[in-house]
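Collaborator request, handled under Task 6.
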Amino acid sequence: MINNLKHNNSGSMLIIVLVMMGLFLVILLGALGLGMLQRKLNIKKIARAQAIHIAEAGVNYYRWVLYHDHEEYCNKETCKEPPTYPDYGPYGPYAYTDSSGQNIIGYYELYITPPALNGSTIVNIKSVGWVADHPYTKREIEVRCGIPSWSIYSTLCDADIRFGSGTEVWGPIHSNAGIRFDGLAHNVISSALCQYKDPDHSGADEFAVHTHVSPVDPLPDGNCPPLNVPDRPDVFIAGRAYAEPVVSFDLLDNYLNEALNKATTSGMVLGDYGAEGYHLTLNTDDTIDIRIVTAITAPCNSATEGIANETDYDIGSSTPANGVIFVKDKIWVDGQIDGNRVTILAFAEPITGDTTDIIINNDLTYTNYDGTDAIGLIAQRNITVGFYSEDILQIDAALIAKEGRIGRNYYPSSCGVNHIRNTITINGSMATRKRYGFAYTDGTGYQYRNLNYDNNLTFIPPPHFPTTGEFTFISWKEK
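Structure tokens returned to the collaborator:
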């Protein structure tokens, strides 16, 4: 009996050992499986992290391409049109290597959507990246990239400038010289200088951006930028800035040759007709009425801004395909557009001269204020609001006076009723080489000046409008 019990106990121990070994193997295999799964997940996680960096490298690469050629949308390859989706591409795949350039880490493909025709500078870039060892683990980045136009400022000036009381400005203002501002500014007012001597009065140097609204600003402390600038939210709601970069008007020289070429190839060119100039009226049906000005009025102070007589030249002409009209003569412009975009330049030959003006006496307006409508006016010399301008005048446009000024000439009280006007409103932007002005210290000119900044013009300017700076990221998202 004792021997039988020993024999039975030996069998029980064997069973227990086998069960324990089985449990151990199950746990071991489970742990190994879990470890392998965790390793795969970590590898995939690393691959996903690397893929996003590779995709971002593709985006940065194409921003570099655009920096060197603002109109290269196919990466020097045969351009690819979109099928049912909105992207143009893919271009690639392109290898992404390590710092040595010898080892391929992964690849990326690019989808480049060019800007909308006749105005926008915004390029849509989608980059799809993946690691070479994990081609099915892909990440996508999509960015909107644009280059700012010359309409980035509500007012840009290359000279000392003054904004009197009664002026309300909503957009940023910058001058390469000094600014006296006595109105109300809702955005930053900046200067390339730190201090300057205000030409409107004698005395010591003042802040490069200053006000005479009571209490008058103190004199600068000599630092650049000055350290004793008072906070004046009653005048400068968003503040003021000093020693900002200069914006050179000479940069427009190369642009003019490009604009003339575009007008010649798929735009409109009006030559010197031999009369006083052209009168262009923009219409809501995307047409333009063009008339020859045969005689001008000579109002007080010998100004030549009024039309005395004109004859039809091309009534109902269609807006050119690329929206660029280059006139080699003086022009008067007015009218209204609806869903249209146009840039009008007035440059007599030689185009580097300073003799030709654009005159605005009547309303020049949009129908849509969401960026759909856009008008650009670029004058060789002045953009002038004439003696016969409307008492309440509205101008919806981006304005550039390359060598002259944007403003209204001085008319003394002896000129009669037109020497004083009520309100001028500009919805858009102004860039003026010389000092701007629609009013004078003796009370003549426009009593109220409303300068409303159109921020749509920054990246969606009028067709083939001049740009400045380089492409910047407007938005970034992972799809």
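The cover message to the collaborator said: "The chain has a mean pLDDT of 89. Residues 1-146 form one domain. Please let us know whether this matches your experimental observations."
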